[in-house]
Amino acid sequence: MIQVAQILFILSVLVILHEFGHYITARMFKVRVEKFYLFMDAGFSLIKKKIGETEWGIGWLPLGGYVKLSGMIDESMDTEQMNQEPQPWEFRSKPAWQRLIIMLGGIIVNVILAWLIFTIMYATVGQKFIATEKIQENGLAFGEVGQKAGFRNGDKILAVDGQFQPSFNRMTLDVLLGDKVEVERNGQKVDVILTDEMKGEIISKEGKDFVGPRFSNTIVDSVIPKSAADVAGLKKGDRIKALNGNAFTFYDEFKDLISKHKNDSISLSVLRGTETVELKAKVDKEGRLGFLNKTLDKLDYEVNNKLSFGQAIPAAVNESWALLVYNVKQFKLILRPKTEAYKHVQSPIGIARRLPDTWNWEFIWNFTALFSIGLAFMNLLPIPGLDGGHALFTIAEMITGRKLSDKVAGYVQTVGMIILLTLMALTFGKDIYQLVVDKLL
């Protein structure tokens, strides 16, 4: 329930402020606003109240929201008023440049919102990120798919497409969005080129966990009851130093060694306190013993840059711009069929399931800022029915001097709504299906 409450809060903030951007610019140019709704009121409203010329309300369907402007074909698909003579207070009566500003008002507010949130966060709690340099001090450890793609345990990522990324979370994203990854391997520079097929395999099988820090010790953090490790006598705090007499330094080396002994009996040299103990164990068919290795929390790699308010302003601008660029790159990745990234597009249901199950204001506001930039980018797309689609036709009108007829505009809006509703049905359907499957399994 906390996850649901968080996503509803975030969506409500974003939708209200996005639509307020349209509302305030419309009123600035004396366009009548007939409705201002949080969520969609298909059939009926949960709450509504008429104040002046505008009906303010909350719909029952949590799929965004809208403002209904007089003299404009929008989500309501109300074309009746378009058959009447244009009135001075109507959207269609205003100059193209004013209509363009009104269409971009929501996007502008989304960008400003992200900038303000980041500014306040940086000036109060600081600019926090997982430091790439810290996390790869011992090199990096890669999953099976990452190694198949050309990485090796111990690699240090120096640059992606010629740029070093100080944030580790961003760096892993850069790898999937970039073309050439430069790594340091055994003191030499090596280039790793990822194909779209390999990116798709990483996304589908391992995701962001395809790479992580390389731990220099194999220390038992916990033992799974009745597992091979439990039967062998491994205990929490034990340090495994050798397998069948083969010493190793890193945990990933231990994993590589043990994977070669599936269903085999092995001997382990274990340091327990100051005493070395020899244990016998049987590896299962998956190449596991059944214990969890002690790891460092990601917070151990976190850097917190304390910024003054003056420093926070440009840093927030840079962050907002960087996120917009990432949205463009991710969209391009989705459009490349071989990556199959389109299969991982999520609805609010899928996003909600990724949120923490405890209420954390710092996380919520950072996520709101990130989501706000995503909403701004999505609405910039030149798809009929979105702000970007309306803006595109308005810009074309400003260039050519020819306005789209109301009849054609109605057809275009209908096509756009069909496309958007189809995409929403697919993403919601996928996430609902996954939710049901996870509950049953």
TrEMBL record:
<dbReference type="InterPro" id="IPR041489">
    <property type="entry name" value="PDZ_6"/>
</dbReference>
<feature type="transmembrane region" description="Helical">
    <location>
        <begin position="100"/>
        <end position="125"/>
    </location>
</feature>
<dbReference type="InterPro" id="IPR001478">
    <property type="entry name" value="PDZ"/>
</dbReference>
<keyword id="KW-0482">Metalloprotease</keyword>
<dbReference type="GO" id="GO:0008237">
    <property type="term" value="F:metallopeptidase activity"/>
</dbReference>
<keyword id="KW-0472">Membrane</keyword>
<dbReference type="Pfam" id="PF17820">
    <property type="entry name" value="PDZ_6"/>
</dbReference>
<feature type="transmembrane region" description="Helical">
    <location>
        <begin position="408"/>
        <end position="429"/>
    </location>
</feature>
<keyword id="KW-0378">Hydrolase</keyword>
<dbReference type="InterPro" id="IPR004387">
    <property type="entry name" value="Pept_M50_Zn"/>
</dbReference>
<keyword id="KW-0479">Metal-binding</keyword>
<comment type="similarity">
    <text>Belongs to the peptidase M50B family.</text>
</comment>
<keyword id="KW-0645">Protease</keyword>
<protein>
    <recommendedName>
        <fullName>Zinc metalloprotease</fullName>
        <ecNumber>3.4.24.-</ecNumber>
    </recommendedName>
</protein>
<dbReference type="Pfam" id="PF02163">
    <property type="entry name" value="Peptidase_M50"/>
</dbReference>
<keyword id="KW-1133">Transmembrane helix</keyword>
<keyword id="KW-0812">Transmembrane</keyword>
<feature type="domain" description="PDZ">
    <location>
        <begin position="191"/>
        <end position="245"/>
    </location>
</feature>
<dbReference type="InterPro" id="IPR008915">
    <property type="entry name" value="Peptidase_M50"/>
</dbReference>
<keyword id="KW-0862">Zinc</keyword>
<feature type="transmembrane region" description="Helical">
    <location>
        <begin position="363"/>
        <end position="383"/>
    </location>
</feature>
<dbReference type="InterPro" id="IPR036034">
    <property type="entry name" value="PDZ_sf"/>
</dbReference>
